[in-house]
Write a structure and sequence with these properties.
The protein is mainly alpha-helical. It has a single domain, classed as Lysozyme, CATH 1.10.530. It has eleven helices and no strands. Helix 3 packs across helix 11, helix 4 runs antiparallel to helix 5 and helix 8 crosses helix 9.
């Protein structure tokens, strides 16, 4: 009987060690780009927790991911957005590389986060003074600015929609789920940072 108890105890210890290792690996995995996110979010006047939440939803921090619609990297940036970024920032070398080989640039975590944050800032300008702006920004990031503007419309003289009303108006179930998931994770991030 003592040998059986020792074996059971060893099994419990091994299980506990494996669970702890998985937990710490996961913490490393989901926070290994935090410094890049913080830096580029600051440059583009974005909340790093929102950027982090978008990356979590888009790729779970897997920089090699390629989307079905031709998007690449951590933030699933489209080559057209990369070309627009290169043109608007005056980076001729990158503009040429974006034309010839967008995948190599967009799979680079630093460049991907930089371009993704640039695009988020561009979208967010339309919603700076709007209550619940994050819902609109995330919807525009996923479905396009024109669709988000359509969902945002209210009759003249009416109050702007709350974030919840806006999310309820999203006509694509996948975008509605995307926005809801990111907003929930974003709120969790805000709470965990305060603790």
């Amino acid at each position: 009987m003592p040998a059986l108890k020792r074996l059971a105890l060893a099994g419990l210890i091994l299980t506990a060690v494996c669970v702890a290792a998985l937990y710490y690996f996961n913490q490393y995995w989901i926070h290994r780009y935090d410094a890049l996110i913080e830096r580029h979010a600051a440059v583009y006047r974005l909340d790093p927790d929102l950027v982090w939440s978008i990356i979590h939803e888009e790729t779970y921090f897997s920089p090699w991911k390629k989307g079905d619609a031709g998007e690449f990297g951590l933030m699933q940036v489209m080559p057209a957005v990369g070309r627009e970024w290169a043109a608007e920032t005056g980076m001729r070398e990158f503009a040429e590389r974006m034309r010839q080989e967008p995948e190599s640039l967009l799979l680079d975590p630093e460049r991907n986060i930089q371009i993704g944050c640039w695009y988020l800032e561009k979208i967010s300008k339309d919603y700076r003074d709007t209550p619940g702006a994050e819902a609109r920004i995330v919807a525009a990031y996923n479905a396009g600015p024109s669709r988000a503007a359509e969902w945002e419309k209210v009759e003249p003289g009416r109050q702007p929609l709350t974030a919840e009303q806006f999310v309820a108006r999203i006509s694509f179930p996948s975008t509605r789920a995307y926005v809801s998931n990111i907003l929930a994770r974003y709120r969790e991030q805000k709470v965990s940072r305060k603790q």
